[in-house]
Amino acid sequence: MLAIIDRRAPREAIENLKKHADVVFQFESAGITFNSISGHPDIFIYQDESNLVVAPNSPLSLLKFLDTHKVNYFFGENKVQENFENSVGYNCISTSDYFFHKSGTTDPEIIKLNFDKEIINLPQAYTRCSLTHLGNNKYITSDKGIEKKLLEKGLDCFYFSPEQISIIDHKHGFLGGTNGTYQNKIFFIGSIDLHKYGCALRKYMEDLEIEIVSLSSNFLYDGGGILFIEQ
């Protein structure tokens, strides 16, 4: 199994991730988008159960990594750039039934992949940054607008305050960007137990029989999530 993580994540988290993945790729970019999200995999890569869609101007190091490990992927239509409209196109979530993103912001190639799903139009275009799907239509989010939308749809959603989530260049980050899921495990870049609402989040996930893996002893770090890829 391969893993992709922000190169700027705490070194402890990267080293511990290596204990779980066969190969860890430390992602970074320069001169493409905002510094705060320049190392975030979920800004450049869309992933669902069957597909990997990569921004056409992704760093060559990422493409070489995917090619070396014979990962199937294809390019999206739009480049990632240093403005809001062109930094959110790949930052969306797909499940077997639903597609979550802010209407009008999604890369066209991703829209084609999800034409047969119910589209949930969210107020937050940085959707993958803000929302994690835990399986079986269970979700966690750090965005009140997303929580409201999902609850209106009758979906099970746990809200977790973005306070105490660190991110480069901003006051706080998003919950979705602090983690990645693989099988029945959720891997956090940091420890949820340091957060003032961490106990409630831990109970919610343990009740779902999801194993929590804290990759470091620091406060949660928003690094654009962790992407896991089966070889």
What would your notes on this structure say?
This protein has 231 residues and is of the alpha/beta class. It has one domain (2-229): L-arginine/glycine Amidinotransferase, Chain A (5-stranded Propeller). It is 21% helix and 24% strand. The chain has seven helices and 15 strands. The protein has helices spanning 11-17, 41-44, 60-68, 108-113, 127-130, 144-152, 198-207, and strands at residues 2-6, 23-27, 45-47, 52-54, 74-75, 93-94, 98-101, 118-121, 131-135, 138-141, 156-159, 179-182, 185-188, 211-214, 227-229. Strands 2-1-15 form a three-stranded mixed sheet, covered by helices on one side. A three-stranded mixed sheet has the order 3-4-5. A three-stranded mixed sheet has the order 6-7-8, with no helix packed on it. The longest helix has 10 residues, at 198-207. It is globular, with a radius of gyration of 16 Å. The N and C termini lie close together (6 Å). The relative contact order is 0.18.
